[in-house]
Amino acid sequence: MARLIPPDRLPAVIEAAVRVFVAHGYRRTQVQDIADVLGLAKGTLYGYAATKEALFAAAVRYGDRLEPLPDTTALPLPAPADGELAELVTGRLAAEVPDLALTKALRRQAPPRTPVEAAAELSGIVVDLYERLSRNRVAIKLVDRCAPELPELGKVWSETGRGNQMSAMEAYLDSRQRAGLFRLPGPVDLVARTTVELCVLWGVHCRFDPVPLASPSPYDDAVVATTLAAMISRSMNPTGGA
């Protein structure tokens, strides 16, 4: 049966699954909903994924195109084993951490010498964080959207993902403020969370906004990243200048 399936249709199946799970959440989504988006019979869709769980797992795993799609001989995709999806998300998050500009800044022995150098460092951190979030935006959006219904996944994102980034950002901002390089516009934990949440908002959630901005097309990721970096770094300039 798998060999009769058009090989070019699997990306459309995954894209439709992403759209429906984001729109309706995990529990409210039915396989028929995804089949309707594709204009397929539900039985045909089962040729691609054995269950709703398998469709959700495929959306998380392949939606960002970070992994090659499976060959049609591997279809229908099976439901994930217990803990498999949480392990996948945890692994992706863990793989990003060592190379984060934020991680490297925290490990740096000597801080920047001047506020100008510190502002450049922070700008690089914001751009790097945004780029990594946007690269994983589909998986993050799916996990965030369905977290209340899938607490195992929700815990991974809220603690290992976003929570750890907020803690690291707080430690970084506090160290630079104590060195006289930043003047934070508010409590360090609030500023740290706002910095991370702005990157998550623009890097992930705005691309799924059901009421998009009046702009004729989504803003280019590079433009958004550099704009956020400039806004955030300038807000912490101890001299009050640009």
From TrEMBL:
<dbReference type="GO" id="GO:0000976">
    <property type="term" value="F:transcription cis-regulatory region binding"/>
</dbReference>
<keyword id="KW-0805">Transcription regulation</keyword>
<feature type="domain" description="HTH tetR-type">
    <location>
        <begin position="7"/>
        <end position="67"/>
    </location>
</feature>
<feature type="DNA-binding region" description="H-T-H motif">
    <location>
        <begin position="30"/>
        <end position="49"/>
    </location>
</feature>
<dbReference type="GO" id="GO:0003700">
    <property type="term" value="F:DNA-binding transcription factor activity"/>
</dbReference>
<protein>
    <submittedName>
        <fullName>TetR family transcriptional regulator</fullName>
    </submittedName>
</protein>
<dbReference type="InterPro" id="IPR050109">
    <property type="entry name" value="HTH-type_TetR-like_transc_reg"/>
</dbReference>
<dbReference type="InterPro" id="IPR001647">
    <property type="entry name" value="HTH_TetR"/>
</dbReference>
<keyword id="KW-0238">DNA-binding</keyword>
<dbReference type="InterPro" id="IPR009057">
    <property type="entry name" value="Homeodomain-like_sf"/>
</dbReference>
<keyword id="KW-0804">Transcription</keyword>
<dbReference type="Pfam" id="PF00440">
    <property type="entry name" value="TetR_N"/>
</dbReference>
